[in-house]
Amino acid sequence: MADDATRVFHDTARAVRTSPEKMQKVNLFESPRMFCDVYALLPGQAQKAHAHAGSDKIYHVLAGTATVRIGEVTHALGPGELAVAPAGVEHGVSNEGELPTSLLVVMAPHPSFGPPSPPEKA
Amino acid sequence: MADDATRVFHDTARAVRTSPEKMQKVNLFESPRMFCDVYALLPGQAQKAHAHAGSDKIYHVLAGTATVRIGEVTHALGPGELAVAPAGVEHGVSNEGELPTSLLVVMAPHPSFGPPSPPEKA
Predict the structure, then answer these.
(1) What angle do CA A65, A71, A73 make, to 5 degrees?
(2) Which of A73, A104, A107, A120 to mutate to probe the B interface, most B CBs <10 Å?
(3) What's the burial of B68, exposed, middle or buried (CB within 10 Å: 0-12/13-18/19+)?
């Protein structure tokens, strides 16, 4: 595969990396506009509930089951299912199953490239 | 499923809608920051190559095969594989297989919510 191809074409299954220590994230692409990661959670692992004031996030299940909380609603999702956490809404994910879980995760805009929109004041 | 859940949780397989006329798009979520669609292409259908000056796009194959062009590189992708079209790079997709193809497509920012960045002039 040419250099160009390796930067823009990815096999999500090959990007899965697990660790008994904690949930793993592998980045496939990032720009100020978005990031696209593959998350891998072994049974019992989780990403604690949190929120991003200015970014939307999508969790798309690739394998296993993901128990996803969006706001006050928690739902168990399987492969092909996805959850959207709009900006400002608390969200988290855990693997309460018996097999490894992998997720395609897209967030926009990328939260680490400076303020994406006018700052929100309380 | 509660109202909240139907807006934030989706089964991509149930969002697939095909038409013999042309490629179909079903929106799952949109905001000024991104849109998330499911595209369905019957054999022979395509999205012609085009570019978005200020938005990145991800094509993630859910089922079937997708022949994706990113810039000058064309690659046939199967389920679980994805392609990234960074802002400004020409991209397109076609179904050159014999089965229906479905894709999860995320673009950020949403190109229809006003100029996301200073307009580019030729």
Answers:
(1) 55
(2) A73
(3) buried
Identity of the residue numbered A55: S
Distance of CA B13 to CAs A8, A35, A75, A87, B104, Å?
Answer: 25, 24, 17, 25, 10
Rg (chain A; Cα; Å): 15
Compute the distance between CA of residue B42 and CA of residue A108 in angstroms, rounded to an integer: 30
Q: What confidence tens digit (pLDDT) does each residue in B52-63 have?
A: 999 999 999 999
Alpha helix stretches (DSSP H) within chain A: 3-8
Radius of gyration of chain B (CA): 15
Residue among B56, B68, B75 minimizing CB distance to A34: B56
Decide if B9 and A83 are in contact by the 8 Å CB cutoff: yes
**Structure pTM?**
0.89
Other C-beta atoms closer than 10 Å to the C-beta of A28 total 21
* B77–A9 CB contact, under 8 Å: yes
Q: What is the pLDDT of residues A82-116, one digit of tens each?
A: 999 999 999 999 999 999 999 999 999 999 875 54
Pick the CATH number of B23-113 from 1.10.10.10, 3.40.50.10700, 2.60.120.10, 1.20.120.450: 2.60.120.10
